[in-house]
Specification:
mainly alpha, 0% strand
């Protein structure tokens, strides 16, 4: 019988997989479950992209105005309304 060292990288990988097998079974047995969180990440992408821009808003008033605009745009999207059309 072939044996590997318990300290090897392969042994660590096997232990990692076995310790998570119970949770992974849900994904294997239920085809409707997502394996990743890409949908959630896409929904907050605009916030993540704007993060650096928030540093350049300039003032507290500018920050509040930006927060209002972002809120209005995201609320429109949640209600299946085109934000640009609604805002104009």
């Amino acid at each position: 019988m072939l044996r590997i060292s318990g300290k090897s990288e392969l042994a660590k990988a096997i232990r990692y997989a076995l310790s998570r097998m119970k949770k992974m079974r849900d994904y294997l047995e239920n085809g409707f479950l997502e394996l990743d969180n890409n949908c959630a990440e896409r929904s907050i992408r605009c916030v993540a992209l704007g993060r650096k821009n928030y540093l350049f808003i300039g003032s507290e008033g500018g920050g509040k105005a930006a927060a209002i605009i972002y809120t209005m745009i995201e609320t429109a999207k949640l209600n299946d309304v085109d934000p640009q059309t609604w805002l104009t």
